[in-house]
Amino acid sequence: MASNTDREMILADFQACTGIENIDEAITLLEQNNWDLLAAINGVIPQENGILQSEYSSENIPNPVFGPSALPNTSASSIASSSSSSGSAFRPVIPSRQVVERLSRMLDFKVEYREKTADVVLEDSCTVGDIKQILENELQVPAAKMLLKGWKTGDVEDSIVLRTLHLPKHNNLYVLTPDLPLPSMSSQSSSQQESLNQNYTLIITHREVKREYNLQFSGNCTIQEVKRNVYDLTSIPVRHQVWEGWPPSAQSDSVSYLRIPRS
Q1: Is the pLDDT of residue 199 over 90?
Q2: Fewer CB near the terminus (10 Å): N or C of the chain?
């Protein structure tokens, strides 16, 4: 019986080969075939499509012959010797990693940054760093200054291949640039600009679990970015978060924390 690690690998290979994104559906199909990857794939994609083939063509494989009459003057010992020396004419069809890797999936990423939104589409054989390179042109932000957030598994390195993250087809991410100041406006006073460059501490209480967080944010951080950071800590999606304590002027998540009047 396959171990949990083996099943995770089989599940990933099965989804890559068949394009089935629903994990529950994929697991059901695999369980129906007793976690036999080949049988499950052939149940979804007929073998005659040529997705998975034996290394031996039909021209090279002799027609099978059955019965002792088909082998005159041949003893049982010579048959066994011939079989062991020449090897079987048939080989089980085993999907190799190369076959799986050729079946790349296209992934969609909707990435938010301040007031901008960028759509990135690329193959799952690309890396996290490749997304940043595309965003560098789209957002006009150096890739080295980006913190790409929103991954279900937490922060990931730029060298990570997207396929290894087992992502759905559609993904929502966001970019933080704590090392870059908010673009200055002509009407902004020098004191306001100075306050935007300072760091501030928010004391956030999660009432359901009776836990308190002391989080530091730069002055140019928006309410939306605060909520996203809380999501990273609590796994509560932004749309499900209910907040109390913001001033009445904080009607939009795009408002910078420092621009909210405080008592």
Answers
A1: no
A2: C
